[in-house]
Specification:
The chain is α+β, with helices and mostly antiparallel strands. Helix content is 31%, strand content 32%. Strand 6 (145-153) and strand 7 form a beta hairpin. The longest helix is centred in the N-terminal third of the chain and has 15 residues, at 13-27. It is globular. The relative contact order is 0.17. Bound molecules: coenzyme A (COA). Residues 23, 27, 29, 94-96, 101-107, 128, 132, 134-135, 137-138, 141, 174-175 line the site of coenzyme A. The site of coenzyme A has 22 residues, from helix 1, strand 4, helix 4 and helix 5.
Length: 176
């Protein structure tokens, strides 16, 4: 069975919030916790978001946001390139239901956000926690390159080692 990816609709949010709670229980993602899943699913500076669905049910999600000077990943990229932050976009809020992994849902979500960014002349730059090794493997398999490391501040007094990546212009496409 294959997942399909489409733009996220408002009606998806309740189901995605439930998926997110399961993901947090399984993987500790996001490190900030899931006290208010709906708010977390609609991040500031959102450019677009996508839902992966299977049999009509949301099973995964990704958002793409514009960069700001307060973003760790944007800061690392800017120090390296001195580039304009309006020329990058940051994929965030990527997760897939633990019961529907390994069938390419995340690869398709990443590809959809990458196509959107590329069509608008934006390079994808992002950070990923070092503990999220499945995500790191996937990004590297799709051709993303590590450009730095940071300590992510979870806002509760804890910090988490994370890596900053830049996606290639032409990304390795997911298996269909
Ligand atoms: C990281 C995460 C999103 C990956 O989701 P996923 O839908 O299972 O990812 P994919 O199926 O696209 O890829 C995962 C694996 O399946 C393989 N795969 C991809 N497409 C496939 C397909 N069509 N058929 C079979 N396998 C496939 C990939 O090669 C990859 O292989 P791996 O086992 O070497 O890692 C998921 O594990 C998750 O939600 N983790 C917790 C949250 C998290 O870490 N988010 C990332 C934040 S940056």
């Amino acid at each position: 069975m294959k997942a399909i990816v489409r733009p996220r609709a408002a009606r998806d949010l309740d189901a995605l919030a439930q998926v997110l709670v399961r993901v947090h229980a399984a993987d500790g993602y996001p490190v900030e916790g899931v006290d208010d899943p709906h708010a977390w699913l609609e991040p500031p500076r959102e450019l677009a978001s996508w839902t992966a669905e299977m049999n009509g049910r949301p099973i995964g999600h990704i958002s793409l946001v514009a960069a700001s000077t307060s973003d760790d990943a944007a800061a690392v990229w800017h120090r390296k390139t001195h580039g304009d932050l309006d020329t990058i976009a940051i994929p965030v809020r990527l997760f897939v239901d633990p019961d529907h992994r390994g069938i390419g849902a995340a690869s398709k979500l990443i590809a959809a956000s990458h196509a959107y960014a590329t069509d608008r002349g934006r390079l994808m730059v992002f950070d990923v926690m070092e503990k999220d090794q499945t995500a790191i493997r996937l990004y590297e398999m799709m051709g993303c390159k590590r450009i730095g490391t940071i300590q992510h501040d979870a806002g509760d007094g804890t910090t988490h080692p994370a890596a900053v990546y830049e996606a290639p212009q032409a990304m390795q496409q997911p298996r269909s």
